[in-house]
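Blinded run. Sample ID left blank on purpose so nobody reads anything into the name before looking at the predicted structure. Input follows.
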Amino acid sequence: MNALATADVVPVEYAVAVDRFLAEAQLRPASRRVYRISLASWAWPLVGKLPPAGPGRRKASPPVVPLALLDDEAAGMRLAEAVAHRMRQAGARTVSRELSALRSATRWWQRRAWIADDPTALLSQAGHGGQAGHGGQAGLTRQRPAAVQPLDAAQLAALFAAPAGLREQAFWRLLLDTGAAAEAALALDASALNRAGRWIRTAPSDQRPLSSHTSDLLGWLLAGRVTGPLFLTDRRAPAGTSATDLCPLTGKGRLSYRRAAEIFTEYTRPLDRSGRGWMLHQLHRPAG
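Blinded prediction complete.
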């Protein structure tokens, strides 16, 4: 399996699909930021929640959502209820712009056969007092789908038997050992690792223990590096990359969440009975 050939892999996560859409959309930087905020806000109703109101809406981290939830038969109603809720907070022009971003992305994903249905079909009536507006948050909660389950012991065994490279093995083991979010783990620098003590600092006051195997994998991955991002890209970073996201020794950049999720999808698609692949969010120690 070639972990570099992920350009045509169907994203498992909504956030990765958003990144792929925005990477190819012909948008100015300011419009791209607006689209990103709007698309992120539509992740909340897909899991039966409403996005935060006010200024906190832009800064809040949206839930991790499988892209396949857009094909759920209740997705349109959940989104329509969220639109009705949003209409009570913002003007019609703002809501129309936010819906336009979702429709553009949805149709782009449909053309690539990433999703089959159009969950925005009901949204035209949401802002006009139709049935879609009834129910409020109670309706969203009532229809909330089951959470994505952590991988079980057999699935984890199959994952770590896959012919993945050192970087991927170290990254996945780190998530499993620490329970850290993938985004937080990717933000770590080489200096966070204490190999002698077998722990890693995931926050200024948070040291998490590592298994000896994970500690060894990370040590081999760093190969003596003590500065720069813990997890690096395969190629040199483009000009203009921030110094905080650049390894001064190799010239490589920090591995992005989008890229890490795409690689995880590629390796886990053959292991998933649905054929979609698994999500990094599912990497947790099995109960018991």
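Unblinding after everyone has recorded impressions. The CA atoms of residues 81 and 135 lie 7 Å apart.
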